[in-house]
Amino acid sequence: MLPGLLIGLWAQMKLHSAYGKYSQVPVESGMTGAEAARRILDQAGLNDMPIEEVEGQLSDHYDPTKRALFLSSDIYSGRSIASVGVAAHEAGHALQHQASWGLFNLRMALVPATQFASMAWMGVFLLGFVLHIIPHFILIAVAIFSVMTLFQLVTLPVEYDASARAKQQLFRLGLVHESERAGVSKVLDAAALTYVAALVNSVLQLLYYISAARNNRS
Fold first, then answer.
1. Active-site option among 90, 159, 178, 180
2. Helices within 23-133 (DSSP H only)
């Protein structure tokens, strides 16, 4: 589990470093993140989709159940390369939903099972040790982490595709200039690394419990 933890910390450091740098670099268009996202959504015919401001840092997300974008204050009103890039990424998820993209739909379908697995994990962990049913606990752990690993596996291409759509729309609509391409890419690529780290961590934990289950049988 330690390699997964270290990779996760490294990915977070890369993200905060890139975001910290490019959140201080003004975008030449002077647009806010919310304005950039609005342009992308309107161009796609999603004129009625709301864009709301939420608290927190990098708490930005697209909610497919509400069909709405939620942007943190720094992104919503920020006029930086980072703000515009992150906002466009979330708009990219809305475009995936609009297109009924297969992997996006699969990810949505996996959300309930993944939420249950993540909540059940700690309870199963404690119950296994309290009741001394370690063999059964290990098998349940394998099942839980299989669900969570599948979710992370599907999430990775969904996030990369949202970033690709964001870059395409930003440049196609002239919201950022060619000289700003590197900055946008660095912010979005650093954000994607956090999903890579989450997948690696989940795979390593799954392999650990599979190995433990095999050892328990022998």
1. 90
2. 33-43, 73-77, 81-98, 102-130
